[in-house]
């Protein structure tokens, strides 16, 4: 296990105490660090680097329902200062509140897309209205915002 610990820290790009410590080893699809831990009979299992960081910090996983949460929202980060245990529900609530606080980049993109689609639809309507008689055009005219 000591070897595993050494191997773990050898894959961490340790920076300043409060900075993010990016995981330099293997990563899962979502960008979270993962490390192979040697187990009995030549078998090994994959552990989340964030979970190992919390363990090594003396914080054991409260239950299997708990996941490692980042206060920095940086998946590869394994600085124990940025990590805490939470349930999936905490995690999604956390994301929702952060999204709300920041205005949420995803939401902005979605709004931009919506606005573009609306503008395109309005143009189409205008073009269609041009082809229609003046009476219809007046009816189809958008109310000015
Ligand atoms: Zn971090």
Question: What does this protein look like?
Answer:
- The protein is α+β, with helices and mostly antiparallel strands and 145 residues long.
- It has 2 domains: 2-102, Homing Intron 3 (I-Ppo) Encoded Endonuclease, Chain A (Alpha-Beta Complex), CATH 3.90.75.20; 106-140.
- It has 5 helices and 4 strands.
- The protein has helices spanning 2-10, 49-56, 88-102, 105-131, 134-140, and strands at residues 34-38, 44-48, 66-70, 83-87.
- The strands form 2 sheets. A two-stranded antiparallel ribbon has the order 1-2. The protein has a two-stranded antiparallel sheet with strand order 3-4.
- A hairpin with a 5-residue loop joins strand 1 (34-38) and strand 2 (44-48).
- Zinc ion binds next to loops.
The first-to-last residue Cα distance is: 66 Å
- The radius of gyration is 25 Å
Number of helical segments?
A: 5
- CATH topology-level name of the largest domain: Homing Intron 3 (I-Ppo) Encoded Endonuclease, Chain A
Query: What is the helical fraction, as a range of percent?
Result: 40-55%
Spell out the helices and strands N to C: HEEHEEHHH
Task: Profile the largest sheet.
Answer: 2 strands, antiparallel
Summarize the SSE layout with pairings.
Elements: H1 2-10, E1 34-38, E2 44-48, H2 49-56, E3 66-70, E4 83-87, H3 88-102, H4 105-131, H5 134-140
Antiparallel strand pairs: 1-2, 3-4
Helix pairs in contact: 4-5
Bound molecules: zinc ion (ZN).
Give structural attributes.
single chain, 145 residues, alpha+beta, Homing Intron 3 (I-Ppo) Encoded Endonuclease, Chain A, 2 domains, two-stranded antiparallel sheet, 5 helices, 4 strands, elongated, binds zinc ion
């Amino acid at each position: 296990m000591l070897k595993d610990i050494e191997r773990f820290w050898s894959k961490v790009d340790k920076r300043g105490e409060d900075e993010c410590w990016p995981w330099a080893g293997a990563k899962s699809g979502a960008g979270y660090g993962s490390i192979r831990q040697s187990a009995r009979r030549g078998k090994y299992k994959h552990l989340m680097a964030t979970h190992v960081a919390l363990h090594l910090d003396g914080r054991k996983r409260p239950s299997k329902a708990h996941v490692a949460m980042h206060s920095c929202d940086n998946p590869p980060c394994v600085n124990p200062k940025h990590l805490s245990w939470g349930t999936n529900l905490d995690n999604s609530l956390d994301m929702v509140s952060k999204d709300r606080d920041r205005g949420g980049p995803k939401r902005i993109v979605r709004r931009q897309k919506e606005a573009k689609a609306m503008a395109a639809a309005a143009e189409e309507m205008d073009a269609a209205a041009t082809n229609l008689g003046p009476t219809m055009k007046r009816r189809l005219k958008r109310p000015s915002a």
